[in-house]
Amino acid sequence: MIRPFPRTRQCRLAIVCLFGLLLAQCSQSSSPADGAIAGVASPCVGAIASAGYHGLSVTVYLSQGGRAVTHQTVRGTHTYRFDVPAGHYVIATHEGDGSKPVPVVVRSEQTTHANIPSYCM
Length: 121
Known about the structure:
The structure is a single chain. With 121 residues, this protein is of the alpha+beta class. The protein has a domain at 34-113: Immunoglobulin-like (Sandwich), CATH 2.60.40. The chain is 22% helix and 36% strand. It contains 2 helices and 7 strands, in the order H-E-H-E-E-E-E-E-E. The strands form 2 sheets. A 4-stranded antiparallel β-sheet has the order 3-2-5-6, with no helix packed on it. It has a 3-stranded mixed β-sheet with strand order 4-1-7, with no helix packed on it. It starts with 6 loop residues before the first helix and ends in an 8-residue tail after the last strand.
């Protein structure tokens, strides 16, 4: 008489296969983890009262490889923050002739601080 394959053995084999698939999934390389870029973007203004300064808006642009990624407009303390994948970026404002692009490197799970000064003051 031929003995059927025991079910407990089938269950063990299934569990081992599922565990192997789970380990294989965990070991696959994934995209770079997110990091952040944060800083202060100074507006291009001359002499101005403090209250007026905090009312001005500044738009901060983020690009990577010559392509626009995103932008945000900040007021008050002019503090910006971008949560992005690790990589090389350029941040800038277009505040007249007084702003220069700032290259930044974002590392996984770290915040890179980069202020954008205004040279027109």
